[in-house]
Fold:
Amino acid sequence: MFRLEAEIIAIGSELLTSHCIDTNSLYLIEKLNSIGIEVKFKTIVRDKEEDIIQCIKNAISRSQIIIATGGLGPTEDDITRECFSKALKRKLIYYPEIEEKIRERFRKRGLSMPLICKKQAYILEGAKVLMNEWGTAPGMKIKEGNKLLFILPGPPKELKPMFEKYIFHELKKLSKQFVCSKSIKITGLTESQTETLISDLYKKIENPKISILAYPGQIEIRLIAHSDKNYEAAESLVENMIDKFRERLKNNIFSTSGEELEEVIGKLLKERKETLAVAESCTGGLLSNRITNVSGSSNYFERGFVTYSNEAKIENLGVPKDLILKYGAVSKEVAEAMAIGVRKIAKTDYGLSITGIAGPTGGTPEKPVGLVYIGLAWKDGVLVTRNQFLGDRESIKFQSTQKALDMLRRHLIQKT
Amino acid sequence: MFRLEAEIIAIGSELLTSHCIDTNSLYLIEKLNSIGIEVKFKTIVRDKEEDIIQCIKNAISRSQIIIATGGLGPTEDDITRECFSKALKRKLIYYPEIEEKIRERFRKRGLSMPLICKKQAYILEGAKVLMNEWGTAPGMKIKEGNKLLFILPGPPKELKPMFEKYIFHELKKLSKQFVCSKSIKITGLTESQTETLISDLYKKIENPKISILAYPGQIEIRLIAHSDKNYEAAESLVENMIDKFRERLKNNIFSTSGEELEEVIGKLLKERKETLAVAESCTGGLLSNRITNVSGSSNYFERGFVTYSNEAKIENLGVPKDLILKYGAVSKEVAEAMAIGVRKIAKTDYGLSITGIAGPTGGTPEKPVGLVYIGLAWKDGVLVTRNQFLGDRESIKFQSTQKALDMLRRHLIQKT
Structure:
């Protein structure tokens, strides 16, 4: 499918622990895919000479483009330079001007360069130096036969700008591919419902390549197309497929431009110059938090109440005490009173409310964990849904806020 | 350091995209490390026959224990079985009893088995079948010379219980190592302050192995020790080091048992039978959300206000309008009034308040993005801190809530 193929070698024992995610590789894969280069192998290797040398030799034997990251620091563990020297049988050559640049960096911070940093001034014979303006260790570019090797420092704050500056454009030219990728975000359908609706449209189609990611409360369809003609050709492959999906998935699609649900409702409210207030119980502030993660949300978000106790529901939202006594705090009636109450108190166009049982404790046979009532109040009416979510506490909290935001979204677009 | 070494092969093109994190490997690494087995290589390979075969051959040539995951599903892309068959020169043998189990699984759901699932009933010659009670594809265990190979299905919900049931205990016996790992969580110090305080204690020490992870607002020190005698020996290595760290880091340590800050303050409040209410502006509900992520938080968390607008601060918390006009909503005075106000209205022992500028817009030269005032009110007093946080909107929100929780924590332990 893609013509150029690359291999990534991530070097560092810390990458083989359970608490370290190799974000560099995710970044590199994204950038490489965006210019039509497929990654065929990613190897993570600890800081051990024989292991690293073997990885390098393997990579050269099988891949056209190799990007190695990490192990260029000044400590004893950092042996990437030496390993490439041995694997490629190339000498390491001392560059006084690189040492001077490193010394300069320390001087600017009022420090003198520790002796151990001197090794960062050694470069493989025949390599092109990739200067590092964001840290001390320079990168390298090496031509080995018809293979192209890049060595980059491990810290993401150095790797990313260096990749952008020295590698991305060169590889883009080499790749000669134009790539367009977009994603469709969906809520209100399960993964299997989505699959059933659209699978006949994309099975057996290779360009665009389609992948479906399912999260609780959200499905994402990624489309990536390529063309050797121009970007527009790749884009129209993606757009045509999106149009076909839209016919089937309709309003369940809330975004085709990468936006989250809270951003979509933010835009809709802003356009309409309308305002929102929320009252939440079991979600404990997550709904407000998601809404206010959007910069500029103060334009439409007026206030939120986390009415965890019954007293808070009564005192702050004006929910009648009798209603709670009669139906319980987790009930259609209380959700409705919360939504109406918060809208009235905050003097907003919309009031959203959530009351339920997030678990893991607190469930009963009549009102099990995951039972959540969600209310939406507006000028002329109120709507309450009864939901039964599955999952752990955090997942139930998330799904509840997702449903609440989606109820508002569907109400807003339906009005148009 | 560790005697037994393992290699992981993760098979699947989706793992070489930028949106898929290989959580299986993180899980496997954690489990293997916990029994003293070090992972020397992790290779991720796409669904392509020649690539997978090469990975398998490489692994057998260099590693004692190999765990391969993924590619056992029923679709055309799933070729792990065939690749092992070719790499190891072992036939695939049809097991009618496995097909019957798969059929049974479908029958229970009222479905008939799709024909493509039949290939999951094929097992490598000489392999031990690892039955899959959590999905359809069985796993395999293979002895190849003195090497031990395990093949597991990719879905984490199948892989994890299968690893627990069939592999973990066998490898634990083989490893003959006792391992103890703990972590220290710190807030109120930067990474370099932490390093300066403790680096002389652990540099050059290999057992326990120490790693320091820094997040905005939180530092974590991981300690992992091993012994070939017994668990107690490993544990005492870890505990001795923790004691040394504690002497230096004192109250900045909030947990040595893995607990998050919100869990720590939850325990402290529960012990004291005291209650809390919060009022937040720029954090938009995140503080309430974190507090209520702890199951049982309704015992001490009474309510929260997300007073995004000035009106909400005035109406719901009783902040004097003049105070906001005179000092601005982001000020020491307003933070103080919010903390005192929320405590009074909710009738709780403590009131916590946050008001600031989360950015990226809204900053001024006098009140820049990241300026956050945090207030804590109790029976006899009130404390307000002025903070200048760095980072993006979400990071500033997180650091603000971290500081608020930590102010309460320090107040609570100081009272003891």
About this structure: Chain B touches chain A through 67 residues (CB under 8 Å). Chain B has a mean pLDDT of 94.
